[in-house]
Amino acid sequence: MNFSNIYDLSIIYQQSWLTGDVPVDWRLANVTPVYKKGRKEDPGNYRPVSLTSILGKLMEQIILSAITWHVEDNQGIKPSQHGFRKRRSCLTNLISFYDQVTCLVDEGKAVDVVYLDFSKAFDTVSHSILLEKLAAHGLDGCTLRWVKNWLMAGPKEWW
């Protein structure tokens, strides 16, 4: 392994973070159809999958780790949040919910339940509101600028 290449890459990542510049190559995505189910001749039985740059994916993970650390360290996420957190899942949410409902029923209290499906919610999140929320939680300017440029530019797809 050539450690000078790793050092060079760390300089590129640091410059990208400091300036907020996101290289166009990191946003290129090769969209490939992946078969789901049903007749293979039916185009509706395929879903598009974006194959993106490893360098861009790695930078996304670095930024995500920084944001996650910052938000969790500053109690920006409530303990009841299960989605998008390490060692938390739909199952841990269900167990927590079941425990709370069981306690209420044992106390003789009425329980009403409403289920909502937010499976596509992130696709509709306003980027400007998301950035405002991150800024309100004290996320540093360099990370905010990088995330803004990453989100606003969006992936550039090619077939």
Please tell me about this protein's structure:
With 159 residues, this protein is mainly alpha-helical. It has 6 helices and 3 strands. Strands 2-1-3 form a 3-stranded mixed β-sheet. Helix 1 crosses helix 6. The radius of gyration is 21 Å and the shape is extended. The mean pLDDT is 85.
Tell me briefly what this model is.
The chain is mainly alpha-helical and 159 residues long. It has 6 helices and 3 strands.
Characteristic terms for this protein:
single chain; Reverse transcriptase domain-containing protein; 159 residues; mainly alpha; 6 helices; 3 strands
Low-confidence runs: none
Q: Please give the order of strands in the largest beta sheet.
A: 2-1-3
How many helices? The count is 6
C-alpha-based Rg, rounded: 21 Å
Summing up helix and strand content along with how strands pair, one would put the structural category as mainly alpha
Largest sheet: 3 strands, mixed
Organism: Mycteria americana (Wood stork)
Domain Reverse transcriptase: 39-151
InterPro entries: DNA/RNA_pol_sf, RT_dom
Protein name: Reverse transcriptase domain-containing protein
